[in-house]
Records
---
Amino acid sequence: MPNDQSTPGIVAGRLSADQIAKNFGDLHPPLDAHEARVAADRCYFCHDAPCMTACPTSIDIPLFIRQIATGTAEAAAKTIFAQNILGGMCARVCPTETLCEEACVRNEAECEPVQIGRLQRFATDTLMAKGGHPFTRAAATGKRVAVVGAGPAGLACAHRLAMKGHDVTIFDGRKKGGGLNEFGIAAYKAPGNFAQAELDWLLGIGGITVEYGKRLGDGLSLDDLQKGHDAVFLGIGLAGVNALAVSGSHDGLASAVDWISALRQSKGKADVAVGRDVVVIGGGMTAIDAAVQAKLLGAETVTIAYRRDKAAMAASEFEQDLATSKGVRILYNAAPKSVGKEGITLARTSTKGGKLVETGETLTLPADQILRAIGQTLEGAPGVLAIEGGKIAVDATGRTSVAGVWAGGDCATGGEDLTVTAVAEGRDAAEDIHTSLTGGA
């Protein structure tokens, strides 16, 4: 928790409030109108649009960039929102460097892609600042749909269903919505209160009711939801956190997910306690986000320990470079072995015959705070649903093994665990739900 200073060495206020505010400013500052026009002019407007193919939500990128270039940013935003209603947040957090921008042909011509992500933010911010909502609801169908989870998948599903005239009720176990966007991403990627502002804006479509403090298995059952609704969509995410299987004990060992969530909910962040010497265990985006933010809060040393080599690390090259640019050290081929008062002992590893093995060499790092970011697990899924690989099994349309129940986002089998992928899955499930409820109309 933000104010927990019971562990020696883990304290709040290592830096002044002003310095922390500066450290947590926009990772990619927004473009102004002139900058956006200049950036848009670099687009070749490719007829085959490899950037569009690389986008999980299939936004017509050449079209929206052309609209920006011609001075119609609001039209560009509508093009974006038609495919991705959370286009504002995705513009901030989507790993464009490995998706649309990596596919940009400007990489071959100039070794630098069109700034698609920043252009998307310019367009969506422009329209959202005007107020109102770009879409209207269709005539009421009389159908009721329950959406469990107010994260990216659930919100995208609910919005598309509401737009088609269905009445939607969203249930979420927390006291506020947004899911990963509100609680799980680095604060410097979406500063301010953008996640909640976007949520309020999305609900402007009408036809959506949100009930907080309700989660599956705790006063909410799938059977009751099915009885009271014509369809159910599950976007419950991955609530469980994997344990760190090491010997020994350490008072400063904590979940990186919980620590990031506490940081996200702190208004000034100066009240969030951080260690002097921090070690983060993991190799994904959560590990990077935790490590960078620990450094931004004033930790003297921050080390990411990842058990495999650099090429196997789930975090992108851009994110790894971002971490090292902030003073974070990344140790590859270093697996946690034990913890104790002296810190954490890591075993050096290598890959032989396709298997990860220890080399026999170890090193011990001083650490008053150890954050584990080694993956999350599914919790709360009803036992009647088929599970595959630790997630709810779904087909290409998001249908689960139970008739009338769909699922999408991190909790379901499918693509990468990204905000933009969750949006696509929620949107596509909504289309299939609509087809099912209206008999193909």
---
Amino acid sequence: MRKRSMLRLFFAIEVMVFGWFYYHGARGVMAVQQLKQENNLIVAQIKQVQAEMQAVETQLLAWKDDSFFKEKIAREELHMAHAGDQIYYFD
């Protein structure tokens, strides 16, 4: 009888330890959920970077093909002007 109760006690302890490792272990449910969250964050960052790359590629194509865009950038960002133009700065 004592042997049987000891076996039940060890079995109960084993089930509790297994349950703890199942949820909290290195590869448990909580670790998997955390990895999924990190993965979702990385996927969102990848999408953001791809959108930024697309915007830069569009701007690069506009820079190569559109003379009006070149003049706009030269005037607004590089503060250049044609000969005889007057440039006014406002605060």
